[in-house]
Amino acid sequence: MIIELVDHADHEDAEQLAALLRSRGGSPHIVRWPGRWLILETAQDIDETWLRQLPIVARVVGSTDPHPLSGRKFQSVSTMIEVAGRWIGDGTFLVIAGPCAVESREQLAATAAVVTSAKASMLRGGAFKPRTSPYSFQGLGVRGLELLAEERLRSGLPVVTEAIQPKDVETVAEYADVVQVGARNMQNYALLGEVGRCGRPVLLKRGLAATIQEWLLAAEYVMNAGNPQVMLCERGIRTFETASRFTLDLAAVPIVKRLSHLPIIVDPSHSAGRAFMVPSLTLAAAAAGADGVIVDVHNDPASALCDADQALSSEEFKSTMVDLERVLAVLGRHVA
Amino acid sequence: MIIELVDHADHEDAEQLAALLRSRGGSPHIVRWPGRWLILETAQDIDETWLRQLPIVARVVGSTDPHPLSGRKFQSVSTMIEVAGRWIGDGTFLVIAGPCAVESREQLAATAAVVTSAKASMLRGGAFKPRTSPYSFQGLGVRGLELLAEERLRSGLPVVTEAIQPKDVETVAEYADVVQVGARNMQNYALLGEVGRCGRPVLLKRGLAATIQEWLLAAEYVMNAGNPQVMLCERGIRTFETASRFTLDLAAVPIVKRLSHLPIIVDPSHSAGRAFMVPSLTLAAAAAGADGVIVDVHNDPASALCDADQALSSEEFKSTMVDLERVLAVLGRHVA
Amino acid sequence: MIIELVDHADHEDAEQLAALLRSRGGSPHIVRWPGRWLILETAQDIDETWLRQLPIVARVVGSTDPHPLSGRKFQSVSTMIEVAGRWIGDGTFLVIAGPCAVESREQLAATAAVVTSAKASMLRGGAFKPRTSPYSFQGLGVRGLELLAEERLRSGLPVVTEAIQPKDVETVAEYADVVQVGARNMQNYALLGEVGRCGRPVLLKRGLAATIQEWLLAAEYVMNAGNPQVMLCERGIRTFETASRFTLDLAAVPIVKRLSHLPIIVDPSHSAGRAFMVPSLTLAAAAAGADGVIVDVHNDPASALCDADQALSSEEFKSTMVDLERVLAVLGRHVA
Amino acid sequence: MIIELVDHADHEDAEQLAALLRSRGGSPHIVRWPGRWLILETAQDIDETWLRQLPIVARVVGSTDPHPLSGRKFQSVSTMIEVAGRWIGDGTFLVIAGPCAVESREQLAATAAVVTSAKASMLRGGAFKPRTSPYSFQGLGVRGLELLAEERLRSGLPVVTEAIQPKDVETVAEYADVVQVGARNMQNYALLGEVGRCGRPVLLKRGLAATIQEWLLAAEYVMNAGNPQVMLCERGIRTFETASRFTLDLAAVPIVKRLSHLPIIVDPSHSAGRAFMVPSLTLAAAAAGADGVIVDVHNDPASALCDADQALSSEEFKSTMVDLERVLAVLGRHVA
């Protein structure tokens, strides 16, 4: 169950109630939620009637979700997240676009121009790149963050970029509007804890062998650390099929919507691995009810240092955006 | 390569050319194609210039596709298939709907009424049911076929139903407009050969562990036996995720469109396994560019004898059709 | 539950009891078991006490296994199967070896000589080959069966070969000592029914996306048709890993042993897809407690018409057999 | 290629050669290898003859392995690793046993007594536990490390335990003989870099969706940071089969042996998820040629705080060890 304390309760109050619960056989976890304190209690036999009578308690939610904070029992309305004036999760559709990796000021500027002109919502670009081989290009690091910040200033586009280790989170959060956790790090719990304390919205990619429940539990690590601003990102799971790089699991969209109040974004580029599938999968994500997409776009795909095969060119992206707007329109939505 | 003989060539001509090819080290396969004879030659070192000069040869196509007949090299334009006056694959969108299994005249009539009133294209219903357990309901058999034929007459809806063994194909083809090959039978080569000779369009479901290439090779078995009217049906692949019954692979839509000229239909019901995901996945299939969907609809889902969890109710189906028509409209398409 | 009738009961008795059960709300299935009649009843609310009092009933087994005939509830002791004087499943270890496909009398004789000299138990060889592509070598068909029968006579080795469609089963059963059902056909129910009536032991390969439960249910189709002589064969499942052709699931050995009384054979060759892994996996299968292995051996692997990469050479096979005998010996077993 | 510098070369020499390579279009990576400096050069067009003539160069190895340091081209003989006087990888067989998580001094002592009396090689026990849910028991942390160190002193057993974030590595390395990287962290590159600098042997578990090549590349991250003492640990991959927790991929043993000189250990407990399969899979691992196993053993499995279902009891473990020694003996090996 989730015990929500009254507004004026402080940390000490939470500690006292937790102690009381422990004395009655409970296993309480204290969570610093924006504007109030929560106590999660997994023991089944705590008396709810007793709890509700305590003056310090505002609400008791009897959730048996394995992921109580991200579950619909705790919060029935869908979460809306604000990023630099754009609202995500309220029926608008977020289009995050940009290069897989930040390579240079020129590349970023040229790609951002495409993103702006296509009226997409945000700019993506990796500064720290988790790469399968230690001998592959690892990203520009802090220099990449600086270039992103520059481009944000110039173009006005909010920026999403990835943090790949706990000690980078603070720096990434300074430069970025949204901090991304990559698929390989979905169960990097130290990293999840850090982004849970970073004060920025988080884009949490699904691990390539993660069930939807494990993914929601990863979101729970972020939320449990005090950050309710989690966007889930479906980016394909690993299967036997090799014609695409991963298998995009669009059923995750209605499933997540049913189980959780968190918004869900789809990454057609990394799942497909080849650009020709990306327009189809982008439209499919919108039609399936996702809250947005994150798409690899490059001013010159053939020369990209990372995942060149999957980046849309300027023309491909613009044409996809036109179709996307039309599909969204008949579903009563529009690009954020 | 594919060697197309001139219109007036007959089987004997094909045999003679095949013998000639063998004498030059070839491995020719003769295919009876509608209106002409084809010879498939997999040997690499046959002289094309020589072949083209033969008076009996109309065309030589240098395909190196592992699946030459279903490949875009042999036929660049998309295949269109006519079913009882409806054309599939020409930009219209096929909606096949009906119960998983035919249970009774009443059930079929009630469900067909829903299908008709929602303006779907065709009626589905299993008479022969392949079931994981020998102790599950196995379908009504020929009695089910008779009920389908009756309902076709009454409602005017063309009918799709499954054949599960070679010896049933002829009977099924008598009653049905389209003969379905189920996922479990995708590599049942004797069955593929029979449906290749049955004279009816074939709906070929993807095997649950089949790669897209293996699926196209299964289509090749049907085509190779003389039947070019194959509709591919993506129905989800088996993965580790258990929140849905199978994982619908919508990337298969653009991939199949690129590799093959055959139409591709999507089955959101069997992939999802639960009805709540079906509307989302239906719209996603349309947006991804599929040529149609096949959807489980039941007049009373709770009482269905087979796959009850995944059938849409009448209301759910009608509401899905409304959204579907609107998405199709902005993509310049409409339900067949 | 499984109702075993007394020895002198006949089909009519079984029919009468089935009718009685139906009148009480049951769903009885009559099974012709060697030496007696069985009735499987899946309804939960039939009164066992009443049944046990009927003079025609010898035994009532309250199994709730989804696969009652292959389950340990019905038969606690492990099934032993006799093939040409060799017993399988009693602690001996079966080694079936031979070429993937029968190619010629010479190839078969040369490979059989290797099999004999290595003291393996049986000869394998495909006459009907299920191939992914219609343009691949499809086996020699009946001519291949004749060559196998000839070689059996000459070498004294019992023979295992595959049936790929229902109408071939009778012919295959005439020539072979054991009828194989391939992985692609594990859910080809018409074929399972035929081999269930063929009077020969059956080697039932696991489908490449089949769960262990689905595999036992496939065995149940064979047994349900009257044939208790089923050997299960684990041959690898399809996963994301491509370094081996399939992923051999050796945990299936203890799992099957726990759930079922049927013997389990392991196919290291088809799972690995490359010969260098086969010796390791053969020893592992023996150590894991399997009842045997089926191994691709070819007198000249480089020239094999089918699956050349995975066949052991004569020397490799003999050396593997030496190690195998030593591992079996310390586990109190030996090659059959 | 890998350029090995002469013994007396120092970091400055390596830097100078790297600069020279860069000036010729190369992309050198400097690696501090025990006793010498290495330079990895991935550019294809560097002149080897020129390199070999440089007095600072001792050896040039023309590996094109994606994982050059862990590949057999660079080092053809198998790596041997010393842990507290026991050698791993030289034909002996390592048995690491102990509880999934350290729970208390008493539990650890009781389990260590079982490990000692069964003559296993090392003690395992998790102090930092990566858990899918933030609400599950997370391990005792540093207190768990202290208990392990105490028990090591008392029992003389070397200790393996896991580090789950970069900042813990130094502490874990102080207490443990071998530092484990768990499956979830196989691509946690910051963690891999830290364990690459920790001076202790590393047990690197395969990620649950990692290909063998990705796993070797993860090892490469550790080695590239200067630590050649990597033991790979196969612990099952995620597949559709749910009868076991994961699917143990024993083919990984011969494949790793062929591609790499690193030792490979097998974890039957985490792959199976249930104790009854563990004895079979332990023997299978030994027969397949693995260099060891890591097994969950608990003095009282029913009360275990973590993964209770998979722990062997004292009796089960001892009896498995007896069988294991016998299988190893006939293969010319014995427990380390």
Task: Write structural notes for this entry.
Chains A, B, C, D: InterPro entries: Aldolase_TIM, Class-I_DAHP_synthase, DAHP1/KDSA, DAHP_syn_2. Four copies of one chain form a homotetramer. With 336 residues, chain A is an alpha/beta fold. Chain A has two domains: 2-61, 2-Layer Sandwich (Alpha-Beta Plaits); 81-335, Alpha-Beta Barrel (TIM Barrel), CATH 3.20.20.70. Helices cover 34% and strands 19% of the residues of chain A. Chain A has eleven helices and 15 strands. In chain A, the strands form three sheets. Chain A has an eight-stranded parallel beta barrel with strand order 7-8-9-10-11-12-13-14, surrounded by seven helices. In chain A, strand 9 (159-162), helix 5 and strand 10 form a beta-alpha-beta unit. The longest helix of chain A is centred in the last third of the chain and has 17 residues, at 314-330. The two termini of chain A are 35 Å apart. The model of chain A has no long low-confidence stretch (mean pLDDT 95). The interface between A and B is large, with 41 and 41 residues.
